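Supplementary Methods S3. Complex input for the NDP-bound model.
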Amino acid sequence: MTAQIIDGKAFAATVRAQVKEQVAHLIADHGITPGLAVVLVGEDPASQVYVRSKGKMTTEVGMASFEHKLDVDTSEAELLALIETLNNDPAVHGILVQLPLPGHMNSDLVINAINPAKDADGFHISNVGLLGTGQKSMVPCTPLGCLMMLRDHHGSLSGMNAVVLGRSNIVGKPMAQLLLGDSCTVTIAHSRTKDLAAVVRGADIVVAAVGRPQMVPGDWIKPGATVIDVGINRIDKPEGGTRLVGDVDFDSCAAVAGAITPVPGGVGPMTIACLLANTLTACCRANGLQEPE
Ligand code: NDP
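Predicted complex, serialized as structure tokens:
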């Protein structure tokens, strides 16, 4: 293996420690406790794990955590009413509605009902527009975590060729916007892209967010490139049981890349750390206080 491992777990711990320190100052100096409300509808097992983990880490950094668990057959109107309550609650600075929502709900409608200033996930259409036009916004947590790792590793990203695999609204598109904002030359690839291997081979930075286990092999990677693996896929182990893998084939990619994020322990922990950082930012903005760096 030649690649340097980008340790997202350690980086996320550092980010959380900084958030914790700033939360302590907010409480001590201003009597303000940042609060994050997480809304889960239904009993999707993966979502339950994420929500539990978000709640635990929110409390660990000294913020108030408000969990709202609703039945799978909750009506859209009931969910919208809860969001309205949270929008008007001064103790709540960040709101996150865990996706995916049950099929009878319109996710766009629900997300766009969140006060954009409290939109901790950055999915509200106003925040999408602000990000796209380079204005101050709430930035989606997963791409923000990827960008922080890239900046930490490279310093400036200016002029680098970046290929984002995947064009979802929650990862691929905002990732591309952020890389463009840092003056990369950005290509967004997707399931209709022709000769994906050749496209990826031109990249100094590859961000893989396709949701296909180990799809990217090492011979697609330009020697020395930086590979950020967003994928979280559970696969069967030959000896029984399951394990988590990313969207890139770690071993073959690590043999060629200059740096690579592991799965688990890469993008995942950074996503939650950025959620906490976003909540802190929202709290500072709501109270007219200086934002954390
Ligand atoms: P989506 O399913 O919404 O999007 C997947 C994208 O990948 C689509 O744009 C799709 O193209 C593209 N794609 C699918 N198959 C191929 C292929 N064979 N070749 C090229 N492109 C392809 O996924 P998400 O963006 O929500 O998530 C992506 C991955 O990231 C998942 O593994 C998810 O679990 C993980 N994830 C991890 C997070 C973390 O915190 N670490 C947070 C969020 C997601 P098209 O549009 O043409 O269909």
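Residues 142, 165-168, 170-172, 189-193, 196, 209-212, 230-233, 247, 267-268, 271 surround NDP (CB under 6 Å). The chain has a mean pLDDT of 97.
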